[in-house]
What does this fold into?
Amino acid sequence: MDMEQRLGTKLAPESVTTTLIRAGCFLSAYELIKPQVIDRVRDFFLCGIEEGEESYDEVWSEYRQNVVVRNPKNRYLASCDWLVEMKALTAEQVATLGEIQKCRHEVAHELPKLLVDPDFEVRIDLLAAAVEIVRRLGVFWGSITADTDPQFDGQEIEYDDIKSGPYLLMEYLASIAGIGQNG
It folds into this structure.
């Protein structure tokens, strides 16, 4: 297919629609992952709320010693490393998160190129991987809640059945984009 035909295919309304939906899903995926990595890890070390303010007290130093020290210049990567140690994610998933972050920046900053360049597409393999990573993070944080919240005392919880809000949204967005969990 020559360049003119490829460009015509890329600019067809249904192609543009699919591209924009997938771009939106990709941007959303990153925004759903980021707080589960950075904020939830930091909040894991929260020791309470005093006078309406979050209190980290001496535990804040535990956060610095256990997380920040892993990569003082990048809390996202430091938190990812901690999540691997906690077995919430695998090293391969963290590597995929790096690819997702890079591609997210390309999609966000190169949207016109995404729409007109026949060789530039949203990586649906990474979008499918993002769905699984959001699922895994939801299971991890949900299991901590189930293990520490007295309302779950005496109940048998099947952790792999936990479906967090971010996961349900990611799953829905991926289905709209025509992407199954298997890519």
The chain has one domain: 32-176. Residues 32-176 form one domain.
